[in-house]
Amino acid sequence: MKAKQTKNDHVLHDAWKCQRHQRTRSSVAMTPPNRGNSQRAEKKNVSPNLKEISEKEDLDTPEKVLLMKQRSSRVIKDVHDVCERNRESLAMVLSNMCAFGDPEAKAIVNEIVEEMAVKRGVKRSVEELVGDDTMSKYVACLRVPDWKLVLFQAIARVSSKTWQSVINITGLRRTGKSSLTPLLLNLNQIKAAKRMVFGACKEYMGVKKVAPPIQGFSVNLSSVVELIVREQRLHQLSSHALRLMMKLDGRPFWGRAQVLFGIVPRDGAVYSQQSAKSVYPLTIANCKEDRDNLKILFEDINHQKKILKEKGMTVDGRHYTVEFLIVLNYKTFVLLLVKKTNASFMLGGRGVSVEFCFICNAIRGCKCHDVAPDETCLDCLRSKCNIGRSTGIRDDLVFLLDEELCNIQLCALHMEMRNTEQLLASIGLLAYRVDSPSIGQCCLEKLWPRVISWRSHLSKEEVRSTVCYYKAEYPCQFNVWSNRTGNPSTP
Predict the structure, then answer these.
(1) Model confidence, pTM
(2) Among the listed residues 457, 346, 464, 332, the one whose alpha carbon sits nearest the alpha carbon of residue 397
(3) For residues 408 and 412, what is the distance between their CA atoms, to the nearest angstrom?
(4) Are 244 and 324 in contact (CB under 8 A)?
């Protein structure tokens, strides 16, 4: 009985101790802690972030670097642990967010680049952050095509020495050095590109030498027509009927006689028909503009022109018909008219008793039977009266460019200049005969007050007075003018 009582006492004592311990713990937990002590402890236990470490001045640079490396390693380890638990990578998360236009992700990447640029420099940061393949692709996007550099050098007329100086000073040449930005071609590369581009253009345009003995070059007519079609289609001016004008011009150039034969679209896309920039050259030859040389130049052109007129041309699956119109001045037009029976015949040549008209057989003057200069014989008069003959226009002339008369136009500007020259020459001849240049000049000024001033723009032989001519044609006006100016009415 006594042993049993002792055992119950021990159980009660243990229960009392456990209850007392629980009351002690709850009282400690309910007691509010000291606020000042807790803040000091928390501040003592929290480590500074990277920005605070970098702004501390009491730390040396090696110590700062060590602390920043350690903290960065701990933080990035936690980030990697989070990514691993979600089966993702930090790079994939940020790249997708930036690709989808997330502003926070873009701000993070931008801040990374800005901070690294401050510490490592802009160029070095970009080279280290961006991969080699991406960097190469980015530099390739900045380059212009090689043919544009060749075109720039040709248009700007940049010499090889100047080009080499530019790429040396700017450091933009394409070399194996990583410190250079390979944007421009070096000298050997641009020479190779020029040789390749020029070779391709020559092959496409069909550049070749003209037939000997003439020195010059020509291109294929079909290639030029194809370029015109593409340009008109680009400016939405293309039609199934392509109308082209052919022009011939011969003049001295740098002391050497040259002949240019070109083609001009009648429906200009950019420039007008009268502009020199609208001319597509077909043939350029160093020769005089005479009939023998033009026959050699026109032989190949007539052959190509005939094929285009008969068969047309197909460009990018669309068929075009080609029509040609010859535009010449009167001098060249007369030069290209050849008589079938006489190869040396020149229409409107020197002399009086020569044929001057391409429609009829009229002659310029009459020297038959010793007639006076202002008279003519019956045969010569009959030749001038046969313009409207029943047999039609003359058919003994051949045009060297192989075109019908309806497809030939005379340039109005050249015709006006030619008529003015003929008129001035006639006036000058009469003035020379009567020896009165001052009165003739005044008469010219009266007719063309805005063109001819009191200063003589004509040679002495050309303006040596037109008194006899105007006195015979306009006697009243001539007398009034003589009385007003006080000049003698007779030489």
Answers:
(1) 0.56
(2) 346
(3) 13
(4) yes
Report residue 181 as tokens. Answer: 């930005």
Please write the tens of the pLDDT for every residue from 62-93. 777 777 777 778 877 888 788 888 888 877 88
pLDDT in tens, 184-243: 888 888 888 888 988 988 898 899 998 888 889 999 999 999 988 888 888 877 778 888
In three state form, how does the secondary structure of the chain look?
Answer: CHHHHHHHHHHHHHHHHHHHHHHHHHHHHHCCCCHHHHHHHHHHHCCCCHHHHHHCCCCCHHHHHHHHHHHHHHHHHHHHHHHHHCCCCHHHHHHHHHHCCCHHHHHHHHHHHHHHHHHHCHHHHHHHHCCHHHHHHHHHHHCCCHHHHHHHHHHHCCCHHHHHHHHHHHCCECCCCCCCCCCECCHHHHHHHHHHHHHHHHHHHCCEECCCCCEEEECCHHHHHHHHHHHHHHCCCCCCEEEEEEEEEEEEECCEEEEEEEEEECCCCCCCCCCHHHCEEEEEEECCCCHHHHHHHHHHHHHHHHHHHHHCEEECCEEEEEEEEEEECHHHHHHCEEECCCCCCCCCCCCCCCECCCCCCCECCCCHHHCCCCCCCHHHHHHHCCCCCCCCCCCCEEECCCCCHHHEEECHHHHHHHHHHHHHHHHHHHHHHHCCHHHHHHHHHHHCCCCCCCCCCCCHHHHCCCHHHHHHHCHHHHHHHHHHHCCCCCC
What is the Cα–Cα distance from 267 to 239, expressed in whole angstroms? 10
